Amino acid sequence: MQLTVWTYEGPPHVGAMRIATAMRGVHYVLHAPQGDTYADLLFTMIERRAQRPPVTYTTFQARDLGGDTAELFKDAAREAYERFKPERCWSAPPARPN
Amino acid sequence: MPSGRRAETFRGRRPRRRRARPAALARYRAQLAGKRIFFFPDSQLEMPLARFLSRANSAWSWSRSARPTCTASISPPNCRCCRTDVHQRRASTSTTSSTAAAPPARLVVCGLGLANPLEAEGITTKWSIELLFTPIQGYEQAADLAELFARPLVRARLVAV
Questions:
Q1: Do B131 and B43 contact (CB within 8 A), yes or no?
Q2: pTM of the model
Q3: A85 phi and psi angles, rounded to 5 deg
Q4: Backbone φ/ψ region at A23: left (φ over 0), alpha (ψ -120 to 50), beta
Q5: Dihedral, CA atoms, A15, A19, A22, A23, nearest 10 degrees?
Q6: What ipTM describes this predicted complex?
Q7: Which of A32, B101, B110, B153 has the fewest Cβ atoms within 10 Å of its own Cβ atom?
Q8: What is the mean pLDDT of each run of 10 residues along chain B (161 residues)?
């Protein structure tokens, strides 16, 4: 599935998170700065859901941007897969297959 | 002056000293005894709070962020340090239940973002920010501090279905 138009309230990664939350067997790996972890609260606190959204944040900091964050992303994706064993992993920004 | 009168004066004028006595903590000590408490790193108050709970005979554990000042060497004996950092908050609630070789916590001190999923797992939670908003710094407030931890445990028992 490829989304071309964002019709959800909020920034795109929150919309993607909302879709991931609505599906089963999906895990979303979000390569995101530290503050983006706050998006969790839209689901657990505002909507009072009983589970966290199925999201793993790589959570880089400003100083990480001086170097390569690819390893951070790969580690996070690997750990998320081992831990949650999803049928499908999403990533944002989208990982491009070669 | 009769000694009884003096005692009365003492009770009337020094309520804060009375509240600081060990007796003020007795009922909370009973409620907290043996309970394992998990702190997510929120305020840097985790260490002193853990030390307080340790003295209140509560078995507890706490998590820390990657701060160099928080080392196991200055922690009390029944404290267990988990290598949990901010990144792992993403990780899920089972951080608290599946930490290696540690039984799940009876009470988890956390932000509102994690409270509902943890409650859904049957774990009692305490909103961490209350430990910042409530005056707990004075020696006469020891019982108030203990009550902050005891209250959710009592409530969980009262509303159990």
A1: yes
A2: 0.71
A3: 45, 60
A4: beta
A5: -160
A6: 0.72
A7: B101
A8: 53 65 80 82 80 69 46 57 47 41 72 87 89 88 91 89 60
